[in-house]
Amino acid sequence: MDLIGTILWPLKWVVELLLVGWHQLFEAIGMDPAAGITWVLSIVGLVVVVRAALIPIFVRQIKNQRRMLEVAPQLKKIQEKYKGKKDQFSREAMSRETMELYKKTGTNPLSSCLPLLIQMPIFFALFSVLNDAQHSKAGVGPLNDTLAEQFGSAKLFGIAPLHDSFASQWTLMTSGEPYVAAVMWIAGVMVVLMTASQFFTQLQIVSKNMSPETKASPMFRQQRVLLYLLPLVFAFSGVAFPLGVMFYWLTSNIWTMVQQFIVIRNMPTPGSEAAKAREARLARKGKLEAKDGDIIVLEEPKKTTTQRQQPMSKDRAKKQAKPGDAGS
Amino acid sequence: MTAAVLAPRNAAVVLLRGYRAVISPLYGDVCRYYPSCSAYTLQAIQEHGVVIGSGLGVKRIARCHPWAEGGIDDVPLKKVRRYRVTPFGFVVAESQGKG
């Protein structure tokens, strides 16, 4: 076995266990074990388990982000110091000072590399499980011959086998052999959906859940530019990866989107658009508890009249105002 | 001669640059340290070569968990530094390039 295979072995085992576990569960409740939908739902189940396991890490990150408010003045000072300096050395010095501040105050808002480290190999493990299944090869553990065969040839929406990729069908098509056009279509649609969900998640964060300070930082602007690289990456993987892997990725993206939506609604970054919206919402319901540091913005409900107000001269306005004064 | 000695680490530099250009942006900033884990590993490999550099990188990634304090964490430098780093990140002998 090669080096990467050895590292992935335990992960492949766990991925297979989760897949087969969900598959058995669905079978137990009376679903057809060979049906595409059963295996597709098993992939969704895998996403749910993995992402649910990562929730505590995510919550911790959110809490840290909330504590950012305490260091906002110091952070602003650093940003002001390097305002307009775009050369590499100033940027580096700024990142250094920011990190130093986070450490000193214990308010590091970043999630650390561990969650990625958990997710990426799972992704590769799923990829290799599906790739092996493509050649009807049994997995390393719970996924035996029969199940591997079944999994690989299970069909998404009843037409597109999970182990097929855009590239594999393309090769068949160009060499004049029979191919499944649906695989290509579905792969294309998935790329579009993934790009859309990623953009929507980012847009939510940027437009609603960022304090003005963060928006002004050069790091943020850099990140924005990189966002436009994503569709390229998705398009590339959409061509090369089996549908099953793409489906895992898409489900995971949708999870992120919903999770982000809930967080932005219920625990927004202080000082952001979403925080103001939440306070206004709570205030309307009369449920607002003011905590230290909360910015309470109560907006007067605007009087809405559809009738156009007649222009009037100053004299007439005075005359009209006099009798009505006491009454209104 | 030097080029042959430096070949493995320059190959690793290309790989890491590729990772930083294509895969890193997918996740945005996550690292609790400065420099980030991948930048740290890149520098470590430039400074110490593939074997020791990757080792340092793995140790760093292991440190980067949600309970870590984070902060500034630079690559330990060698006492005698014989090489130069090009803007792209390739490691070359001190005399090479500029002449």
Automatic annotation (TrEMBL), chain A:
One of its GO terms (cellular component) is plasma membrane. It is found in: Cell membrane; Membrane. It is a multi-pass membrane protein. It comes from the Bacteria. CDD domains: 5TM_YidC_Alb3. Its main location: membrane. It comes from Orlajensenia leifsoniae. One of its GO terms (molecular function) is membrane insertase activity. Interacts with the Sec translocase complex via SecD. Specifically interacts with transmembrane segments of nascent integral membrane proteins during membrane integration. Residues 298-328 are annotated as: Disordered. Required for the insertion and/or proper folding and/or complex formation of integral membrane proteins into the membrane. Involved in integration of membrane proteins that insert both dependently and independently of the Sec translocase complex, as well as at least some lipoproteins. Aids folding of multispanning membrane proteins. The chain crosses the membrane at residues 7-25, 37-59, 109-130, 179-200, 225-250. Belongs to the OXA1/ALB3/YidC family. Type 1 subfamily. Pfam families: 60KD_IMP. Residues 39-264 form the Membrane insertase YidC/Oxa/ALB C-terminal domain. Keywords: Cell membrane, Chaperone, Membrane, Protein transport, Transmembrane, Transmembrane helix, Transport. This is Membrane protein insertase YidC.
Automatic annotation (TrEMBL), chain B:
It comes from Orlajensenia leifsoniae. Transmembrane segments: none annotated. HAMAP family: UPF0161_YidD. Could be involved in insertion of integral membrane proteins into the membrane. It is found in: Cell membrane. Coiled coil: none annotated. The gene is yidD. This is Putative membrane protein insertion efficiency factor. Keywords: Cell membrane, Membrane. InterPro entries: Membr_insert_effic_factor_YidD (IPR002696). NCBIfam families: membrane protein insertion efficiency factor YidD. Belongs to the UPF0161 family. One of its GO terms (cellular component) is plasma membrane. SMART domains: Haemolytic. It is a peripheral membrane protein. It holds the Pfam family YidD.
